[in-house]
Amino acid sequence: MGRPLRPNDDGLTFHAFSRGNNREAVFHDEGDFRAFIDAIGRAQLRYPFQLYGYCLMTNHFHLLLRPEPGVAIGRVMQSLLVTHTWRYHKRHRSLGHVWQGRFKSPPVQDDGHLWTVLRYIEANPLRVGMVTDPVHYPWSSYPTHATGRPNPLLSELPGWADLGDTPRGRSKAWRAKVLASLPEADLASVRSSLITGRPYGDLAWSERQASMLGLGAANRPRGRPKKLEK
């Protein structure tokens, strides 16, 4: 039996995440990274969505995106992951699963929670010690937000203009936010949302969205939380 259709999720922003099967690498070299970014662009053409941020790590990726009305998040992610899997097997002459299980895509409330998730995503390379300044990590939306570097994949995050009066001022303000460590409580909340798939926002909004999307008690974790990549 196929997976039940997800209730209408128009107007929502999602934190999409997937990782390699058995936590193995899915991006081995520059060609793999570039091909995935190209796949994002093709998915945007087929199933339009606004992309607010992204970060590709060695064995997983994060996207912050809002599908256009009538476009389901599942269609976007299926298109992206199937395209990558096909290319991966062709290039690496491999078989079997590339991604571990079903992707996660918890909705994110359009307020400060959206900013927290983008900070979480773009600080990934810094948090795990891959770079001392994430502006030097090319497989992320951070260089665009921190320097104003053009990126045709990206849409402006709602409220971005409130960061400053000029593009340079907004970039400077964003650099300060990302370089400042997120509070542990925020880190734990974002990770919990990814593990469970439940909406990330204030309690009332999260419960309302969970109910509307049919995310019940079955999505709440039991026992010790699972480990999640940074």
List the helices and strands and how they pair.
Elements: E1 13-19, H1 30-46, E2 49-56, E3 60-67, H2 73-92, E4 107-108, H3 112-122, H4 124-127, H5 142-147, H6 167-179, H7 184-196, H8 203-212
Antiparallel strand pairs: 1-3, 1-4, 2-3
What's the CATH H-level homologous superfamily? Transposase IS200-like
CATH architecture: 2-Layer Sandwich
Number of continuous helical runs: 8
Please trace the helix and strand order, writing H or E for each element. Answer: EHEEHEHHHHHH
Mean pLDDT: 88
For the biggest sheet, the summary is: 4 strands, antiparallel
CATH topology: Alpha-Beta Plaits
Report, as a whole number of angstroms, the end-to-end distance: 34 Å
Low-pLDDT residue intervals, each spanning 5 or more residues = 1-5, 217-227
What would you report as the Rg, rounded to the nearest angstrom?
17 Å
The helix content, as a percent range, equals 40-55%
* Global structural class: alpha+beta
The gross shape turns out to be globular
Q: What's the domain count?
A: 1
Main CATH class: Alpha Beta
Query: Strand share of the residues?
Result: 5-15%
Number of strands: 4
* Strand order of the biggest β-sheet: 2-3-1-4
Summarize the structure.
By secondary structure, the chain is an alpha+beta fold.
Describe this structure in words.
There is one protein chain. This protein has helices at residues 30-46, 73-92, 112-122, 124-127, 142-147, 167-179, 184-196, 203-212; strands spanning 13-19, 49-56, 60-67, 107-108. Strand 2 (49-56) and strand 3 (60-67) form a beta hairpin. Helices cover 41% and strands 11% of the residues. The chain has 230 residues and is of the alpha+beta class. The protein has a four-stranded antiparallel sheet with strand order 2-3-1-4, sandwiched between helices. It is globular. The model is unreliable at 1-5 and 217-227 (pLDDT under 50).
